[in-house]
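Objective 1b. Sequence-to-structure analysis of Exonuclease domain-containing protein.
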Amino acid sequence: MFASLGHFTKQPCPFLPDCNRVYCHFSHIPQPPPAKRRKTENYAPQHLPFHSSTQPTSPARMTRPAAAGISGTPSTPSATGARAGQRAASHPTTSPARTPQKSTVSSARPPQNLIPTGPPVVPPDVRSHSPAKLRQLIATKFHAEFVRIYTPHALASDLTLATVHALRQESAVHAASGPATYKNLAANTLTRLKRRAPACDALDIGIDGEYLPPGASPAEGTGPDLGNAATYPVRAQNAARYVLTVAQMEQMGYPIQVTDVATVERAEEDEGKIKPCDRCGREYTVKAVLREGDLVACVYHHGKIRVVKVDGQKQRSYSCCDKLPGDVGCTSGPHVFKEETIAELERRAPFVQAPPASSRAARGVAQVRDLVALDCEMCYTTAGLELARLTVLDGRDGAAVLDELVLPRGGAVIDLNTRFSGIVTLRDAKYDFKGIMEKFFEFVDGGTIIVGQSLLYPHSGGLPYRHSLRNLAHRYLKKFIQDSAEGHDSAEDARACLELLALKIRKGPDFGIINTAVAV
């Protein structure tokens, strides 16, 4: 026989006291009698008036009222009731009327007009690239600095000002950074806030990037928030002092005089010629039709060489894969070439001069702008590096007056350079090079100021070194551009140029120049 599991050992045997089993599965222990249920009396709830007092109160004594008879006649009090009556006579239950006093007991419900004056609470955001705990810590530190800056003048008129500005400051830092740069940008912003002097009046306020010291001239006009840059419009008369002279343009490598070119070679004539590859440096034969092997013939690094510290030592490596110079490339593609000298470029497409400003009325063009920002995207063809997209922004409001794809002048497209240009196809292109040039001169003539890049902010090492637009936007505008995996955006780059010019106008001619011999 198998042993019993004992599941019924606590259950009373149903055959007691006449159970005849030798081994019964149930319990034969006598069970205690069931407890008597006590009769409970129902009491009607009594609604007593609430009186709050500042004096300490003793705990109230509760007396049980006598049960009423069924017939409604008063019942005879018992001895216990008599003693209770004697105590009630000596200590009357009715207290003398008191004068109502103002209650000091705080209500459980918070007041409706609660003013947030402490550190802000960063709202949760599932799309945030940084931890919520870190963002809250940064906002709290910003709040402490704004309290210091705004005490006592600004906070006297608005108690929530430090809280609101701390939240706006953290939000601006978060929007202008990424997961790898958030802490550094927040630390730099906090350092600048710590250097600010206390506000001299209620109007001496503003978050970092928008704050203007007393006496500084504000930006012209109003418009979208550009962070550290000025707001639109950017007027030509204010930018005229920063237009480069002819000598400066020659020093920068810009073409000054248009030379006469008898003939212009066609792009097809480069087919079969040997050219050095712009990516890997190897020589190759230019082809208009690429075979399968030609599409991966070039092995190169698409990133630039940078200097980083490894174990305390400076080391040069590629930004794309961290490999050392001389290592095998990390990317493959077709061989391409480009021509950079003025003579080579003019041989391809002779330089032209814009129509003079005096011819606006004669040409019947009423939409010529006084100041524009221009940026291009390029693609590789059998004729070298050619224009694939042209973007022109109006300096008055930053709106695009021209943003079009451009077909190559005749050479076959080898590589659209999508990693950098962002162009996937030229299927929607409506203009060729000649057509886009004619369209361009509807908005630009000899009196138009064209905004470029890296000119007003010379490199500390002097020429030929120049800052990249990405570096300038990060340093002065606290923006990250050209950071998308889908490639660059010429409209974004042109807008960054406008904002850099606006910032230069706002800060003055010495802003952004550090140990350089180039005068602007």
